[in-house]
Amino acid sequence: MNYNEEKQALVNYGKKMSTEGLSSGTSGNLSIFNKESGLVFITPSGVDYQKTTSKDIVVMDLEGNIIDGDKKPSSEWHLHTLFYKNKPDARAVVHTHSVFCTTISALRMPIKPVHYVIADANSIEVPCADYKRYGTEELAKSAVKAAGKSDAVLLANHGIVVCGKDISSAYSLAKEMEYVAEIQYRAMSIGKPILLTDDEMKEVAEGFKNYGQPKKEDK
Ligand SMILES: [Zn+2]
User: Fold this and answer.
1) Which residues form the Class II aldolase/adducin N-terminal domain (predicted)?
2) Smallest Cα–Cα separation from 167: which of 51, 63, 57, 46?
């Protein structure tokens, strides 16, 4: 078994998560799901991101059986595997305790459409899951239930979980949701934020479909 690409990507994004301020200390965790093999690659529990190497990445199946690696997997492996079981397009999951998402989660309120980039979560708002203790299957169930179709969900008094079609999309979504949460926090500090309406958000979602450079076949 090799899978160096998956392991190295997790090492690189773990370092990025720590240097870009999305995680302090060893908090947060990342995983990649390889659908063909049915394997989940996940960061180890309690290892400093700056010191993590590809040898530390744990390989498990969707039931949590360790297939390879001598470290303990992230304590939130239930959260990661349950997302893959419930979200057919998810190939990567990122969980962080980023400050502004966690601040909003302490109010047990959703991240609201205070900025249009929230549409990247495939949702008008990012719901907040009921509080359950960290590292439990109950937390995973609560998160998946609250997420529904959204690719991002807050965990009450804890942080945020997001998923994406690959690790780069999942990581970008975690950063964007932190940005929207910060705008919400700042706007709530000086007044009552005016939220984008459902129609305005529909328009944004439509626009996102055609965002970026046209694909070759479109030319
Ligand atoms: Zn956590």
Assistant:
1) 8-185
2) 57
Dig out the tokens for 62 from the structure: 């969707």
Q: List the strands of the sheet with 39-42, edge to edge.
A: 66-68, 58-61, 39-42, 29-34, 92-96, 159-164, 152-155, 128-129
CA of 3 to the centre of ligand 1 (A): 26
- The two structure tokens encoding residue 163: 């998923």
Distance CA 80, CA 33 (A): 9
Task: For residue 123, report the distance from its CA to the centre of ligand 1, in Å.
Answer: 22
Q: Which residues make up the environment of ion ligand 1, defined by Cβ < 5 Å?
A: 159
- Where in the sequence numbering do the catalytic residues fall? 76
Given a cut of 70, whether residue 219 has pLDDT beyond it is no
CA distance 137 to 5: 29
pLDDT at 88 over 80: yes
186 CA from centroid of ligand 1 (Å):
24
CATH topology for 4-210? L-fuculose-1-phosphate Aldolase (3.40.225)
Rounded CA-CA distance 171/152 in Å is 11
Residue 57 three-state SS: coil
Number of DSSP helices (H) and strands (E) in the chain, helices first = 6, 8
- Give the model confidence (pLDDT) of 23-47 as tens digits: 888 899 999 999 999 999 999 999 9
99-118 pLDDT, tens digit each: 999 999 999 999 999 999 99
Percent pLDDT > 90 in the chain is 89
CA of 191 to the centre of ligand 1 (A): 30
Closest CA to 110 of 20, 200, 195: 195
